[in-house]
Amino acid sequence: MTDNAVRVLEENWTGHSTVPSRALYPHQWSWDSAFIAIGLRHVSIGRAQTELESLLRAQWPDGRIPHIAFAPSVPRDAYFPGPDFWQARLADGTETSGIVQPPIHALAAWLTYQADPSDSVGFLERIYPRLVAWHGYLRDRRTFGGGGLVAIVHPWESGMDNSPAWDLPLARVSPAPAGSFTRRDTDHAAGADRPTDLDYGRYVQLAATYRDHGYGDRETPHAFAVEDPCFNALLISSEHALAEIAEVLGRDPEPHRRYAAALTEALVERLFEDGIFRSRDVLSGDLIPSDTVAGLIPLVVPGLPVADELLATALGPRFRLGETRLVPSYDLTAPDFDPGRYWRGPSWFNTAWLIHRGLINLNQTGYAEALRADFLTLAESTGYTEYLNPFTATPHGAQNFSWTAALTIDLKSYERG
């Protein structure tokens, strides 16, 4: 199994980074590269370090890490929205998108260091200031909800692009005119599995408005601004990782620990309801009554005060952890649950990996081992698919998907201790 997973990463390697999928996602994606590095650390420390450092070469002067770093060797129209749409070019000529993705990078860097501490201190020295700048951007530019949590300004920033949690805030957005853009995702994946044309038009309009205001977070009249529990939980985990990195480097870890503690308190106070974390619509101030896997991801937060209640929700009828394949991305009892459409019901390997990590942190070894075993079986049997039906395990999306392969390598390593 590990050999096959390594083969996937080799086939998707470009020489300095790993594409998620040669056809559907032919560039470098932000949180994909973090997950990929977590797997690569078991194969090649150098490759894992290069994966993260190549991404950080696309970091903006304001500290943001864009969600896509475009490869100049790929045709400009191979993916939409491509570089001509985003119009974001760094001083060295690197072209990127203008939005971000969940901040799991510091955790990936810390795990990479732990795989071989003797060969990674220099890596931490190089990467630590960039990660501090990244978190500083989020803290300083994106906390406009009034409660200290970071807000996303586009559904794509959540990493869970088509989540039902975005339906209510997206309803405010007038879509880009029909015929003003050409989708490329449906060239490589079944239309029934992908976002609708209406939603895609709204995504395009949001991105265009942000672009046309110079990607200014305070200047843009955001029609979509949401405090997402997954995004903030991963920021908390990465702040804890930065504290560990700071100690190794002889820096003061306490600012990272204080920020992680403040975020944890705000996360629980602002987003926890009915046994799960829900997204908050910043513009209306209301919690969004859609229960998604994003609301379970705070299981990874160290010392989470409501962890027992959250675990009970994961085991309950909304997600049925241990009874379904991996972890469904949406409430199984919701009338609009869809087992095949992108983030509206299918199970994903990266969220299963995060929940497995949370279960380990809670010493829930029985549930963790069952989830790990299911993950490894399904990854191989589905050809390292992007996501799958939580009941039938029917694969969906791209095959030979890089984070599925990388996280397979990581979970396989548990067998070796």
TrEMBL record:
Organism per entry: Kribbella capetownensis
Similarity section: Belongs to the glycosyl hydrolase 63 family.
InterPro entries: 6-hairpin_glycosidase_sf (IPR008928), 6hp_glycosidase-like_sf (IPR012341), Glycoside_hydrolase_63 (IPR004888), MGH1-like_GH (IPR054491)
SUPFAM superfamilies tied to this protein: Six-hairpin glycosidases (SSF48208)
Keyword Hydrolase: yes
Domain of life, per lineage: Bacteria
Upper classification of the organism: Bacteria, Bacillati, Actinomycetota, Actinomycetes, Propionibacteriales
Keywords (A to Z) from UniProt: Glycosidase, Hydrolase
Domain Mannosylglycerate hydrolase MGH1-like glycoside hydrolase positions: 25-404
GO biological-process terms attached to the record: oligosaccharide metabolic process; protein N-linked glycosylation
One example GO MF annotation: Glc3Man9GlcNAc2 oligosaccharide glucosidase activity
UniProt keyword Hydrolase present: yes
Entry protein name: Mannosylglycerate hydrolase MGH1-like glycoside hydrolase domain-containing protein
